[in-house]
Specification:
With 467 residues, the protein is α+β, with helices and mostly antiparallel strands. Helices cover 42% and strands 12% of the residues. Helix 7 runs antiparallel to helix 8. The longest helix is centred in the first third of the chain and has 22 residues. InterPro entries: dGTPase-like, HD/PDEase_dom, HD_domain.
Length: 467
């Protein structure tokens, strides 16, 4: 079903003050991208232009010098992918009745899905919500800002559709609700764009050959038990496996690499130390996070602004920034693989408290001396195989029911040769904020040897080298 209605006839009037023609731009991933006037009008707003000042990968740019691309180019890429996928669906499934309006709404959802990210993206969200005690979620902020951007461009009913697509919600009469945010199995245009773009910027080329056109040509919108979702030809099973594997590789080598994590914690400490004192337009960072108008003033530039400020209350933030600039980063004092079969009981463990409890009396520790976290890397569905959540069809047998690949089944399309033995890894990683003369490492070793906790650890090699 398509989105249409008389209200859309107001579009031309709404766009008179904006660019009246289609815009073609050059993109590092797709080369030439064509953008319709409505999408260009949304791009030409301060709220979207702000994304130029937000690095896509945050702290990873300190690890990979080429990873300085922004959420601005990623968001345009997602809009382009949404258009490409919907045009393919429109061509192969004319019975769904997808219209130009549907395609443009899909593009707008892809374009605006990240407008609610703060400085250094998830780092800012973590500091504000977890350490400052303020309820903040980038998806909620994205919805508020998207509604602000769109209120003068499209009818209210279409604004609701765009927001629903951004969040991956099931919408009445909308068959393409999961193309931007697919919580079912993670195959959506948002992830596909940043998998390709991030690997290109970090490694010089995609680490896996993701042939988007082939993937989209073999995709269909299918319905199972009243739920519309993306389905794929059976021959795409191995290609989808490579995409799920690429996700895990990017998390291990980029997003959750030990250097990325260490520098991320340092930037988080800078923001936390500066939050009560550093002001933007007379308001603290916490106040900015609570008001969408103030929030739109924020960008990655705050790090340099904090560094340049001579305010005496920022001395702690300045000291951490000096360490960051001189590559004196937080050290991994301890890391150990965890048993993923113990996920449930481990969820109740307060790791920092447990480490403090096992500190040697001769080597006392304070809670501020270290950071302990469980690093989780998987293929997108926890310990489960995400490929089992994908619906497949055989185009040569259209009457055949939709199927899912199960372990040890359909060897032609889901070869066990390429199926991992497990789909998730967990590691306890402990960083020292300052040298502790081995106190953190000793405490962690005592924790590992404690029968109360020993079952949580495995004999597997740790993810990271602590030397």
């Amino acid at each position: 079903m398509c989105v249409c209605g008389g209200a859309w006839t107001k579009r031309e009037e709404m766009l008179r003050k904006h660019r009246p023609r289609e815009l073609t731009i050059l993109d590092r991933v797709y080369e030439h991208i064509s953008l319709p006037p409505l999408v260009v009008a949304a791009i030409d707003t301060p709220a979207f232009q702000r994304l130029r000042s937000l690095h896509q990968l945050g702290a990873s740019s300190f690890l990979y010098p080429g990873a300085v691309h922004t959420r601005f180019e990623h968001s345009i890429g997602v809009a382009h992918m949404a258009r490409t996928l919907l045009l393919n669906i429109q061509h192969h499934q004319p019975d769904l009745g997808l219209s130009e309006v549907d395609i443009e709404l899909g593009m707008l959802a892809g374009l605006l899905h990240d407008v609610g990210h703060g400085p250094f993206s998830h780092l800012f969200e973590d500091v504000v919500s977890r350490r400052c005690g303020i309820e903040f979620n980038h998806e909620d902020m994205s919805e508020k800002i998207a509604r602000r951007v769109l209120r003068d461009l499209v009818p209210q009913t279409h604004v609701d559709v765009v927001v629903g697509l951004m969040r991956g919600k099931a919408l009445l009469g909308i068959t393409y609700g999961e193309i931007i945010s697919n919580k079912r199995n993670g195959i959506d245009v948002d992830r596909l764009d940043y998998f390709i773009r991030d690997s290109m910027c970090c490694f010089g080329k995609p680490t896996v050959d993701v042939r988007v056109n082939r993937l989209f040509n073999s995709a269909r919108i299918v319905c199972e038990e009243g739920q519309w979702q993306l389905g794929f030809e059976q021959k795409l099973a191995l290609s989808l496996r490579e995409i799920f594997t690429l996700r895990a590789k990017l998390h291990k080598n980029v997003y959750q690499h030990q250097v990325t994590k260490a520098i991320g914690h340092m930037i988080g400490d800078v923001i936390h130390a500066a939050a009560p004192h550093f002001r933007v337009g007379g308001h603290t960072l916490v106040e900015c996070a609570q008001d969408e108008t103030l929030f739109l003033k924020l960008g990655d530039w705050i790090l340099e602004a904090i560094e340049a400020s001579e305010a005496p209350h920022l001395a702690e933030a300045h000291a951490i920034l000096h360490r960051l600039r001189t590559r004196d980063i937080y050290r991994v004092a301890y890391s150990s693989a965890l048993d993923i079969t113990m996920r449930a009981p481990m969820a109740a463990v307060d790791w920092p408290a447990a480490i403090l409890e096992h500190a040697h009396p001769s080597f006392p520790l304070n809670a501020d001396d270290f950071i302990a976290e469980v690093v989780v890397i998987n293929q997108g569905k926890g310990t489960e195989d995400p490929l089992e959540s994908v619906l497949f069809f055989n185009p040569k047998k259209p009457s055949q029911p939709l199927t899912r690949l199960k372990p040890a089944e359909d060897l032609k399309h889901g070869s066990p040769l390429f199926t991992p033995l497990q789909f998730e890894e967990r590691t306890l990683m402990v960083f020292e904020r300052r040298p502790t003369n081995g106190a953190v490492q000793r405490a962690c070793e005592r924790l590992n040897a404690d029968p109360k906790y020993a079952a949580f650890f495995t004999d597997s090699l740790p993810f990271y080298n602590t030397k």
